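Students often ask what a holo structure prediction actually looks like on paper. The answer is less mysterious than it sounds. You provide the chain, you provide the ligand, and the output is a string of discrete structure tokens encoding the 3D arrangement of the protein together with adenosine-5'-tetraphosphate.
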Amino acid sequence: MRILSGIQPTGDKHLGNYFGAIRRWAEQQHGADCFHPIVDLHAITIPKEPGELRESTLSLAALLVACGLDPAVATVFVQSHVPEHPRLAWVLECMTPYGDLRRMPQYREKSAKEHGFGVALLTYPVLQAADILLYRADAVPVGEDQRQHLELARDIAQRFNNRFGDVFTVPAGTYPEIGAKLMDLQDPTSRMSTSADSDAGVLRLLDPPDVIRRKLRSAVTDSGREIVRSPDKPGVTNLIEILAATLGEAPEAIETRYEGQGYGTFKADVAEAVVGLLEPIQRRYGDLRADSDELHRILTVGAEKAHAVAAATLARAHEAVGFVAP
Ligand code: AQP
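The corresponding structure tokens follow.
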């Protein structure tokens, strides 16, 4: 069983990234062959300041390890260190219909917000397909927002295999039962996102305890007093989901426990649970980030392991399309 799932070095990652992706990677690493790229090529689809990108890449490596990824077990690497990613993406772009990319919801959202954006904002889902297919990954643990991109990767793999023979594994997206899509605390109809316009609705993994408490205290709740999940109570539903995912309990158990209690107590309990979850992660992160040499060593070893697998798949794909071997 091989797993691949990446994460962008953009800003300070949040609790949605943790529940949707990182925590599951740490849980799965001992039962599968896992590859986790820090996808810096994806990060520059929206302009980034170079120093900030460098810092975000190293700090994200430290954060992944602090969250429980063991670099001696899982392969953690930087996408731009493995040149096979854009090389396979080019081949796949040549056979991906333009209309499929224009329909991607994330392209429609981002192109509406960005002015004068680069063409990669349209094509990056193909690079994402290359990220996955290079490792012949069976499973891709991601959050719900990635479902359409995963479907595209599956279509691309199937189309390629139908035309050129069995080169790629057709990957399956896997989504958590709880926490597949955490919502913004201030706008619970929008996904909690690293690049949100306002920080107030985003619970960052490195937020100090008092900031977590403040953000949860001012989280938007809904009319009424009941602590239940319901489509017309997106704020409370999201907080129930956060507490359930944090404690590893069923949302129904949370609803039962808080029957008849007010929002104040409930929000305070959510805050303490999240603070308790993040405290050991933040402690480990501090130590790891202070040792840049060790982070570079981890990423060098990761890139070597990733390169060995990626180069073999790229060679097969190149041969299949008819490129003459060098
Ligand atoms: N709100 C979320 N709930 C659950 N899972 C989520 N993921 C993202 N948001 C949520 C999952 O986290 C993994 C890494 O995603 P990312 O690096 O793209 O993070 P982001 O927060 O989506 O970052 P940005 O900067 O805001 O980027 P855009 O706007 O490009 O998405 C993925 O598995 C993702 O599903």
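The first helix runs from residue 15 to 28.
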